[in-house]
Amino acid sequence: MHRRVAGATGGNRMSYLIIGLLLFFGVHSAGMLAPQWRERAILRVGDGAWRGLYSLGSLAGLLLLIHGFALARAHPIVWYAPSAWMHTLARLLMLPVFPLLLASGFPGRIKSAAKHPMLAAVKLWATAHLLANGAAADVLLFGGFLAWAVCNRLSFRRRSQRPLPGAPPSKWNDLIVIVAGLTLYALMVGWAHERLFGVSPLS
């Protein structure tokens, strides 16, 4: 009896994470999986209403996966134990993540070379965290983001990307992206990650 109760509790913890991931990725995959349906829905309900529904669905999925991840981390199921070199490689892979995220809004050579810098940042971020974390919840969370980013990137071969709002082109954009991105990286590694998530990347 106790074993069944414990198993059900563990399953409930993980189910929040799984439902949150499905909802979050489902909302963010409409343009990738059903672009024509998405366009028809926007025309039917209006751009403002669509953005509102999109935001609500994204927020609900995000809150569910955060809650489920926190519950699962309290009672982790370890699938593999990362070694020291995997942690080192993870920190190196994280170096370009913040510059790439910023590059999506600051047109320059970095954005042109990466083509889809935000997706590139997500792939590096997810891979780095898969190297550094071996619990089941970590694999589901970061593996899910990695798979979504790869599929999304491949889908651009058959569909166009809507232009994203950002800064005007400038010869200084690449410098801004690098300096600000590496500053954010140093802040996250040295202080913010431990304060926000309770784990230091340097430990």
How would you characterize this protein structure?
The structure is a single chain. The protein is mainly α and 203 residues long. It has 2 domains: 75 residues; 126 residues, no CATH class. Helix content is 76%, strand content 0%. It contains 10 helices and no strands. The N terminus is likely disordered.
What is this structure, in a nutshell?
The protein folds into two domains: 1-75; 78-203, no CATH class. The chain is 76% helix and 0% strand. The chain has ten helices and no strands.
Percent range for β-strand residues: under 5%
H-E string: HHHHHHHHHH
Number of strands: 0
- Overall spatial form: globular
What is the count of helical runs? 10
Query: Distance between the terminal alpha carbons, to the nearest Å?
Result: 39 Å
Approximately how much helix is present in the residues?
Answer: over 70%
Q: pLDDT under 50 segments (min length 5)?
A: 1-8
Structural class: mainly alpha
* Rg measurement, Å: 19 Å
- Domain count, please report it: 2
Kindly report the average pLDDT value: 87
**Largest sheet, strands/sense/barrel:** none
